């Protein structure tokens, strides 16, 4: 229902005298199809206080800030490229199946609307947000503790310490599997289908890098001073805005 409403509003606006001007400004402006701003802002907001955010913060304390940052960003960059490629494949369904309807782009736009509504609903539930933030932190602590116990982080008990390449690989592996299937991955797929994949990849990697940098420099302290409610409402509004921009660019 909400997806139809957003699409209907976008179509109605395009039928007015300001429609062509608005379309030109959206396509060529910061909300346009370059994808960089959309991916950067959405990924950054999605990652602050997320499970991988806390994992990077914890690993920075155990293995060092540089190791945690490089390993995490390398893993998240790989995840981003995979996600964008999935989005591109979805947007290039054979013409025989899609006719003149851009199914892939529309599917990506629908996902943006769904994510936007979900983020707004979560943002308006303040009590549940605090519980969610605590859950993310606890999940991260359990993941790191489990990796230490099994020898996946820092080497096996009683054995030699892991070398630098091994530590980087350990961080990257832990972050990769923690991020797989996360909202930011799905958002990247949606953006990759709806907007320019190169811009989306660059923006998403930049967003991941900034969020990870904050995490390793003092993630736990930073998370305590950031309102989950504000982040979710802001990301929800941005999801909806970029969905509208994508719809208008297709009209």
From TrEMBL:
<dbReference type="InterPro" id="IPR001727">
    <property type="entry name" value="GDT1-like"/>
</dbReference>
<feature type="region of interest" description="Disordered">
    <location>
        <begin position="128"/>
        <end position="159"/>
    </location>
</feature>
<dbReference type="GO" id="GO:0009507">
    <property type="term" value="C:chloroplast"/>
</dbReference>
<feature type="transmembrane region" description="Helical">
    <location>
        <begin position="231"/>
        <end position="250"/>
    </location>
</feature>
<keyword id="KW-0812">Transmembrane</keyword>
<dbReference type="GO" id="GO:0005794">
    <property type="term" value="C:Golgi apparatus"/>
</dbReference>
<dbReference type="GO" id="GO:0016020">
    <property type="term" value="C:membrane"/>
</dbReference>
<feature type="transmembrane region" description="Helical">
    <location>
        <begin position="66"/>
        <end position="88"/>
    </location>
</feature>
<dbReference type="GO" id="GO:0032472">
    <property type="term" value="P:Golgi calcium ion transport"/>
</dbReference>
<protein>
    <recommendedName>
        <fullName>GDT1 family protein</fullName>
    </recommendedName>
</protein>
<dbReference type="GO" id="GO:0015085">
    <property type="term" value="F:calcium ion transmembrane transporter activity"/>
</dbReference>
<dbReference type="InterPro" id="IPR049555">
    <property type="entry name" value="GDT1-like_CS"/>
</dbReference>
<dbReference type="GO" id="GO:0032468">
    <property type="term" value="P:Golgi calcium ion homeostasis"/>
</dbReference>
<feature type="transmembrane region" description="Helical">
    <location>
        <begin position="100"/>
        <end position="120"/>
    </location>
</feature>
<keyword id="KW-1133">Transmembrane helix</keyword>
<keyword id="KW-0472">Membrane</keyword>
<dbReference type="GO" id="GO:0005384">
    <property type="term" value="F:manganese ion transmembrane transporter activity"/>
</dbReference>
<comment type="similarity">
    <text>Belongs to the GDT1 family.</text>
</comment>
<dbReference type="Pfam" id="PF01169">
    <property type="entry name" value="GDT1"/>
</dbReference>
């Amino acid at each position: 229902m909400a997806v139809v409403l957003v699409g209907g509003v976008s179509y109605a606006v395009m039928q007015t005298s300001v429609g062509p001007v608005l379309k030109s400004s959206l396509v060529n402006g910061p909300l346009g199809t370059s994808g960089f701003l959309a991916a950067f802002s959405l990924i950054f907001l999605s990652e602050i206080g997320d499970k991988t955010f806390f994992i990077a913060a914890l690993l920075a304390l155990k293995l060092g800030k540089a190791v945690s940052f490089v390993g995490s960003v390398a893993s998240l960059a790989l995840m981003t490229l995979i996600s964008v490629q999935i989005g591109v494949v979805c947007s290039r369904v054979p013409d025989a199946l899609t006719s003149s309807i851009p199914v892939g782009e529309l599917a990506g736009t629908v996902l943006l609307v769904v994510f936007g509504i979900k983020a707004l609903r979560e943002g308006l539930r303040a009590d549940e947000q605090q519980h969610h933030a605590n859950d993310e932190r606890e999940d991260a602590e359990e993941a790191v503790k489990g990796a230490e116990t099994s020898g996946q982080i820092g080497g096996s008990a009683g054995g030699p310490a892991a070398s630098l390449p091994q530590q980087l690989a350990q961080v990257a592996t832990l972050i990769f599997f923690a991020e797989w299937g996360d909202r930011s991955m799905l958002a990247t797929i949606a953006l990759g289908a709806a907007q320019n994949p190169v811009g989306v990849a660059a923006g998403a990697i930049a967003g991941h890098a900034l969020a990870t940098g904050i995490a390793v420099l003092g993630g736990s302290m930073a998370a305590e001073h950031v309102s989950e409610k504000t982040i979710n409402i802001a990301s929800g509004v941005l999801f909806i805005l970029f969905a509208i921009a994508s719809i208008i660019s297709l009209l």
